[in-house]
Amino acid sequence: MTDWQRDYATLALRINRLVAESALSGTLLIYKGPEEWDAQVRNEPPATPGRLADDAERLLESAPSPYLAAQVRAMRAVARHLDGERLPLAEYARECLGLEPRRVPESVFEAAHAELDAALPKGPGSLAERLRAWQAAHTLDEIDRLPDLVAKAVTETRTRTNAIVPLPEDEVVGCRLVEGVAFHGAGDYEGGLRSTIHINKAIPFNLADLLYLVSHEGHPGHIAESMLKEGLPEQRVRFMLSPSFVLSEGLGLLAEEIIFPDDEAQTWLNQHIFPEVGIRPDGSDFAAIHHAKNVLWGVWGNATFLAVEGRADTEVAEYLSRWSLYSDDEVAAAMGLLKPSPASPYIFGYFHGWELLRPWAATRPDRVRRLLTEQLIPSDIAA
Questions:
Q1: Last residue of a domain, one of 23, 52, 86
Q2: Which of 259, 265, 352, 256 is nearest to 304 (CA)?
Q3: Hey, which of 8, 38, 189, 202 would disulfide with 226, CB 3.0 to 4.6 Å?
Q4: Residue 42 pLDDT greater than 70, yes or no
Q5: pLDDT-derived band at 23, boundaries 50, 70, 90
Q6: Kind of pairing, strands 194-200 and 172-178?
Q7: Which pTM does this prediction carry?
Q8: 117: alpha, beta or left? (left if phi > 0; alpha if psi -120 to 50)
Q9: Which of 86, 117, 150 is the last residue of a domain?
């Protein structure tokens, strides 16, 4: 390890400690570096944000690659934010994410609503009510059966991803049902070719989304990327509010479309999953529904702008309800995640990452391979 790498790692650990101890954002770091550096930061007095911003400035002058320079710029922005700097949200997000988010015009969401209207079964009620009825019709009643169904989906998504980039044959991916968490699903690569997909058992599971979720969290999404990049030095210190995670979340949203183009996901579910649980085809179009779902991630970004501007909770909630088509319970859960914090820009990575990657990689296996094996940032894609 070089002095630069040690200083880089301790900077990330110190910033993350301030964020975690402030109870503002949880963790912003995935750390796999030397334990002694972590122990050093845990046992020393907390650093001041201003000092950490200065440390980032010095590291930036000698960053050994554009990727690492982008990571350090993100750390510097967070340290300055913790020190009291309040840039406009789009500018702060640009420093953190390597791209400047924009407010998505509501006409884009109107088009997504029209796509949903055509893709969902015809029936009574509003579009939101029809969407919830479709979700309910595909909900797994016996949640304890989900790990076995996830295992089947993992086998299929690994096989299809392996056609793009070779995967280790002895990889093990488990599924664990959890509760008391804010997420619906999360892929955790534990190292040594072992991973777990965690799924929140408190949220009804829509089996029409099985491949959408497993490909996002597993292959060719987060688990595949973490596993295939395990040997790269930069993977030991991954600051999450950064340009690399824009591409990770964009790839996650694009993952199902990459390995199940057109209606292949729906066809596979109809053949291998739905007969087991008594779900019959209803004429809906899963690919179109999931495309619209990805577009509507843009609503979260717009709502984040509103929240950071200080708009009333009722206004933000009404905006989410109207454009995301969420139920009251879903809106209430989302509101907790939209409270302004140092990590507010992260939410932009989903829509803007997906929007950036879809025309670049959706039908290009060579580019998907690069996303899974190289340390890229948004400027590499834009170039």
A1: 86
A2: 352
A3: 189
A4: yes
A5: low
A6: parallel
A7: 0.96
A8: alpha
A9: 86
